[in-house]
TrEMBL record:
Matches recorded under SMART domains: CRAL_TRIO_N (SM01100), PTPc (SM00194), PTPc_motif (SM00404), SEC14 (SM00516)
Organism (species): Culicoides sonorensis
PROSITE patterns on file: CRAL_TRIO (PS50191), TYR_PHOSPHATASE_1 (PS00383), TYR_PHOSPHATASE_2 (PS50056), TYR_PHOSPHATASE_PTP (PS50055)
Residues in CRAL-TRIO domain copies: 80-199
Protein name per UniProt: CSON011107 protein
GO MF terms, alphabetically ordered: protein tyrosine phosphatase activity
Length: 648
């Protein structure tokens, strides 16, 4: 008799194998006498925190052990007078409620902290003791943690910068709880400068997975967020009135278990023994039905449609023209530097300085509105709920069947070097938006598509399969038939020659699809050579195809927009476009302005250059390009900090 193995059986076996691998690696190398043998329960905590990536879970465990040893966080006894007194202040609390995704909520009340009267060690012991108890809940292990840093009524004397660094470092990369988000509440004006510095500790990847990712990833059965966290500042006051006996594990555990029983509902009430107030008449909403992340929002209008009633549509003639021969974008504004000056600047600033410069750029508010992207009929067309499309630069599709809601796609025009609308930055198509994607390709007369992600990365869907990956295959999207004629695979990229046919007009066009496959799962490429070669080949292909159009093309000499996308359309996409612009300018006039280029791109496609290491990569890649072109001799970057942030 054959035994039928279900999907659940496969998941359990896969998890069991990961646990055993983790235990083998950790117990064979664990030399810390304080920690003792690692059990399966401990292994599960670290594996859940890193989505069962064994290698990353082991790294987290090792970092966790180092922090515990360095800060004196072993053998914590809550019954000692000092620690009990610290716990009873209520300075750090695990709230009894959860956010909409089921994550536990930790609250640090800054005005209860006096750095002059308490040591870092004692404060951290109080925090870790409560986190350890909270993490006994398997729901917390799976759903993660939201950290609220409440600065209501706090003074400068309450702020301990070094302690804040230690807490955030612990939560981000040294504790087995998935830190989903950091919310800084009611930040005073004096906090602006240190807040910018604290942002450097964190990545910004709070993107809610779409249904196609969830279905494709059996190891992530719940909607998840990336390990790195968002930090956001909110003008809200939260008053904690919980009365919890912190000397006992049982009460804290029971409150978490009780709240987990209600977390599966459509909303989660966080006001049990907790009052939430604001300095105005705003209401505080901790559960947004459109956001699977926990967020704090203020809403001054109860009309759900009010946010989208007062916008004015961009003129199709200006927003959807797709090409321009306007050479007014000369690229001479900003702070241009020769390549030698760029090298000296990079040496002087180092990695840390560049990351700080990026943080200052990132801290600025968006340069436009997102009304169309937030319209209730368009929300489902966004791959990620927090990566939206500017109104002023969005690609406006033609309406289908006179439906005014059919003109939206999460895509923006981005200017290039001496070329308006040189690129279209867009998200990786979803199954439900693939038709819109190919309509955009057709309507904007695009010749080249650049894809800087794989369809699947780390067992998660990053982009829909919107073209046939086999030669001779066809896919049909509305009135567009996409045929794959040839496929040329290289070590670093794959080129597919596509043919698209409009069944309404029987017109046929050629499209070249370039997929870069050498971007690592984490961080950025160690060397830019592969990306630089890829970029050059893309430009050559665009030039060939524009030349083949002959007199039928009357637009800019560089041709119609090049479509560039990754998963969200901001990280690797912004990196590719930044390099292309800076290289074009360097070749033309001998100078480049990386910072100014990034600022310009972000003004047209919000949040472009998603991560600090991508910003650093742009500088190093431009230097590497100059060396390969003979503009520079080999240079010495000794002393340049090699620390690397995680990005996608």
């Amino acid at each position: 008799m054959k035994i039928k193995i279900t999907l659940l059986d496969k998941v359990i076996l896969w998890m069991f194998k990961a646990v055993n691998q983790f235990l083998d690696l950790v117990n064979s190398s664990n030399k810390n006498p304080h920690s003792g043998a690692v059990t399966q329960a401990i292994a599960l905590k670290f594996l859940f925190a890193r989505k069962f990536d064994v290698h990353r879970a082991v790294q987290l465990f090792e970092q966790h052990e180092l922090i515990r040893l360095r800060e004196g966080l072993y053998n914590i006894n809550p019954m000692t007078l000092e620690l009990r007194t610290e716990l009873e202040t209520g300075k750090f609390t695990i709230l009894p409620g959860r956010d909409a995704s089921g994550a536990a909520i930790a609250l640090f009340t800054a005005n209860l902290h006096n750095p002059e009267t308490i040591s870092h060690k004692l404060t951290l012991q109080g925090i870790v003791y409560q986190l350890d108890v909270a993490l006994l809940s398997t729901q917390t292990q799976k759903a993660g943690l939201v950290f609220i840093y409440d600065m209501s009524q706090s003074k400068y004397s309450n702020f301990d910068y070094e302690l804040s660094q230690k807490i955030l470092t612990l939560l981000k990369g040294g504790y087995p709880a998935r830190l989903k988000k950091v919310l800084i509440v009611t930040a005073p004006l004096w906090f602006k400068a240190p807040f910018k510095i604290l942002r450097l500790l964190h990545c910004y990847k709070s993107m809610t997975n779409r249904e196609d990712e969830i279905l494709a990833n059996i190891s992530n059965c719940q909607t998840d967020n990336n390990d790195s966290s968002n930090i956001s500042v909110q003008n809200v006051e939260i008053t904690n009135q919980n009365n919890i006996d912190f000397g006992s594990d049982s009460l804290l555990v029971s409150s978490l278990v009780d709240s987990s029983n209600t977390a599966s509902g459509s909303t989660t009430t966080l006001s049990t023994n907790t009052t939430t107030t604001t300095t105005t008449n705003n209401t505080v909403n901790l559960n947004d039905s459109h956001q699977k992340d926990m967020s704090l929002e203020t809403n001054q209008n109860n009309d759900p449609g009010s946010a989208v009633n007062d916008w004015t549509e961009n003129s199709p003639s200006s927003a959807s023209s797709g090409f321009s021969d306007d050479d007014s974008l000369a690229g001479t504004e900003g702070d241009p530097k020769t390549i030698e000056q760029i090298v000296e600047m990079v040496k002087a600033m180092g990695r840390t300085g560049l990351i700080k410069e990026y943080a200052e750029i990132r801290a600025r508010p968006p340069d436009g509105t997102f009304n169309n992207a937030k319209h209730r009929n368009n929300l489902g067309k966004n791959r990620y709920t927090d990566v939206l499309c500017y109104d002023h630069s969005r690609v406006v599709l033609s309406e289908v069947d006179e439906d005014p809601n059919s003109d939206y796609i999460n895509a923006n025009f981005v200017d290039g070097y001496k070329q308006k609308n040189a690129y279209i930055s867009t998200q990786g198509p979803l199954p439900k938006t693939a038709c819109d994607f190919w309509r955009m390709v057709w309507e904007q007369h695009c010749l080249v598509i650049v894809m800087t992600t794989r369809v699947m990365e780390r067992s998660r869907v990053k982009c829909g399969q919107y073209w046939e990956p086999t030669e001779g295959g066809q896919m049909e999207y509305g009135n567009i038939i996409v045929t794959t004629n040839t496929i040329d695979s290289n070590d670093d990229y794959t080129v597919a020659s596509l043919e698209i046919k409009n069944t309404k007009t029987d017109e046929i066009r050629s499209v070249s699809h370039w997929q870069f496959t050498s971007w690592p799962d984490y961080g950025v490429p160690a060397s830019a050579i592969a990306m630089l070669n890829f970029l050059q080949r893309v430009r050559e292909q665009q030039a060939i195809m524009v030349n083949d159009l002959g007199d039928t093309w009357a637009g800019h000499s560089r041709g119609p927009p090049i479509i560039v996308h990754c998963s969200a359309g901001i990280g690797r996409t912004g990196t590719f476009i930044t390099l292309d612009i800076c290289i074009s300018r360097l070749e033309d006039v001998g100078t480049a302005d990386i910072k100014g280029t990034v600022e310009k791109i972000r003004s047209q496609r919000a949040y472009s250059i998603q991560m600090p290491d991508q910003y650093v990569f742009c500088h190093l890649a431009l230097i590497e390009y100059a060396i390969t072109r003979g503009m520079l001799q080999s240079i010495d970057l000794t002393g340049f900090d090699d620390g690397e942030e995680d990005s996608e």
